[in-house]
């Protein structure tokens, strides 16, 4: 009973310490050192008097101490991007591998951050660690930026006493996954750009160019060919109802995005359609396999149990279809099946991936084999995206040439016809 009371007392004290740390305010200070040189910096403290006392203890003469001003446009700053987390992961891994204490590492990294929101977040995590929390517990306050997979890997490293090694692995994982995400965005950007340019050029032609010719033809009273009449009718509709067309386009895009977030069935449908597209489907499929292999390899190497690891891997594939397949694999493995057999049952993984997984299981080097699979498919994605970019550049010119050229020819057909009758 005494032991239980002592544990409860320690927990209350720890909670009080954490609450006390979280109330610290960040102050900007200006002081003179022993040589009379002006020094500037910032320091978290309960009040300005404690900042001055600390500066005097360090041999400096405080001049001004002010509470750090909040940003003009919102106190939280810019959004924390996955790329920011990837860079942070590499920095913290490098510092810890070099023997820099964790709290000091967070302070150094936070001091170099330009993103106010991320800086405050890192300082808050640092304060949590100073208050007695483990790293994965302190990161748990920010589940959006540091997802379950990230925290599980950190927790595994802390449990095994190899946190610096695991952080280095996590940093590499974040860098690779962010790299492949950028490749996918690049691959999706080009088709979207083609459609946007085609839509913009068509609108300009129909709203501003064609009406000039329409008035000319009306004054001439000539009989118009079918292509010309079609272009004039389209222009007339666009001039009077352009807001409906724009509303339909942007409404459709917004509806697809909202439907994907709110309806799981619709998200499945979009994902299946995406995976079956001629070129993009192959890129998305290879990307999902690469992310699956790298994520599973990282979690397995960190010592996370396979069934538990697959829970985190399912959300990291970037595909609803592959995410569901991973969950089915998890259920199969939970009842005793091998990983390679569970992968084969989904019908989504190429034979090479299944065979390399089988070799990895038999040889006891599953993580190494998964990394090799990830590297292979990451390279395939890189090649496919570069090829797609090369092919789409002339395609844009062809589409625009056909579109604009077709309109111009249809508009000049009546003129050619009139010239032939003279």
Structure explained in plain terms:
- Helix content is about 75%, strand content about 5%.
- It has helices at about 1-20, 50-55, 80-95, 100-110, 115-130, 135-140, 150-160, 165-220, 225-260, 265-275, 280-300, 305-315, 320-335, 340-345, 350-365, 365-420; strands at about 25-30, 40-45, 60-65.
- The chain has a three-stranded antiparallel beta sheet, with helices on one face.
- A hairpin with a 5-residue loop joins strand 1 (about 25-30) and strand 2.
- Helix 7 (about 150-160) runs antiparallel to helix 8 (about 165-220) and helix 9 crosses helix 10.
Features:
422 residues, mainly alpha, Receptor-associated Protein, 16 helices, 3 strands, disordered N terminus, GspF/PilC, cell inner membrane, T2SS_GspF_dom, transport
Largest sheet, described in full?
A: 3 strands, antiparallel
CATH class of the largest domain: Mainly Alpha
Extract low-pLDDT stretches. Answer: 1-22, 72-77
What would you report as the Rg, rounded to the nearest angstrom? 31 Å
CATH architecture of the largest domain: Up-down Bundle
Whole-number mean pLDDT: 81
N-to-C CA distance: 113 Å
DSSP helix fraction: over 70%
Q: Give the overall form.
A: flat
Query: How many distinct domains?
Result: 3
Order of helices and strands: HEEHEHHHHHHHHHHHHHH
The CATH homologous superfamily of the largest domain:
Type II secretion system (T2SS), domain F
CATH topology of the largest domain: Receptor-associated Protein
- Describe the strand arrangement of the main beta sheet, using strand numbers: 2-1-3
DSSP strand (E) fraction?
A: 5-15%
**Number of helical runs?**
16
Structural class label: mainly alpha
Number of strands: 3
């Amino acid at each position: 009973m005494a032991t239980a009371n002592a544990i409860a007392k320690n927990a209350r004290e720890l909670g009080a310490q954490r609450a006390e740390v979280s109330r610290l305010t960040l102050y900007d200070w200006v002081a003179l050192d022993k040589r009379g040189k002006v020094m500037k910096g910032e320091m978290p403290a309960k009040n300005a008097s404690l900042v001055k006392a600390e500066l005097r203890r360090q041999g400096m003469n405080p001049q001004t101490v002010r509470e750090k001003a909040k940003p003009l446009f919102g106190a939280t700053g810019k959004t924390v991007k996955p790329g920011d987390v990837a860079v942070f992961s590499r920095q913290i891994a490098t510092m810890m591998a070099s023997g820099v204490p964790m709290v000091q590492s967070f302070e150094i990294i936070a001091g170099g951050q330009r993103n106010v929101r991320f800086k405050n977040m890192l300082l808050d995590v640092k304060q949590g660690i100073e208050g007695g929390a483990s790293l994965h517990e302190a990161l748990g306050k920010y589940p959006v930026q540091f997802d379950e997979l990230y925290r599980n890997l950190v927790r595994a490293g802390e449990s095994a006493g190899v946190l610096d090694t695991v952080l280095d692995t996590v940093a590499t994982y974040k860098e690779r996954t962010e790299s492949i995400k950028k490749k996918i965005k690049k691959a999706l950007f080009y088709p979207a750009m083609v459609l946007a340019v085609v839509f913009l050029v068509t609108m300009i032609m129909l709203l501003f160019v064609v009406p000039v010719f329409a008035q000319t033809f009306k004054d001439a009273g000539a009989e118009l060919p079918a292509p010309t009449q079609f272009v004039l009718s389209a222009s007339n509709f666009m001039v009077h109802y352009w807001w409906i067309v724009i509303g339909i386009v942007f409404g459709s895009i917004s509806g697809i995005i909202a439907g994907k977030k709110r309806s799981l069935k619709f998200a499945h449908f979009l994902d299946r359609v995406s995976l079956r597209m001629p070129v993009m489907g192959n890129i998305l499929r290879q990307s999902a396999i690469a992310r699956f292999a790298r994520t599973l390899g990282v979690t397995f190497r960190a010592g996370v149990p396979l069934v538990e690891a697959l829970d985190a891997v399912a959300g990291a594939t970037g595909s609803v279809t592959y995410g569901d397949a991973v969950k089915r694999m998890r259920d199969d493995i939970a009842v005793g099946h091998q990983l390679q057999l569970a992968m084969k049952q989904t019908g989504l993984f190429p034979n090479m991936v299944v065979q390399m997984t089988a070799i990895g299981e038999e040889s006891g080097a599953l993580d190494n084999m998964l990394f090799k699979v990830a590297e292979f498919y990451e390279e395939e994605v890189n090649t496919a995206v570069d090829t797609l970019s090369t092919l789409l550049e002339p395609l844009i010119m062809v589409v625009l040439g056909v579109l604009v050229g077709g309109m111009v020819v249809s508009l000049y057909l009546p003129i050619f016809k009139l010239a032939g009758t003279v």
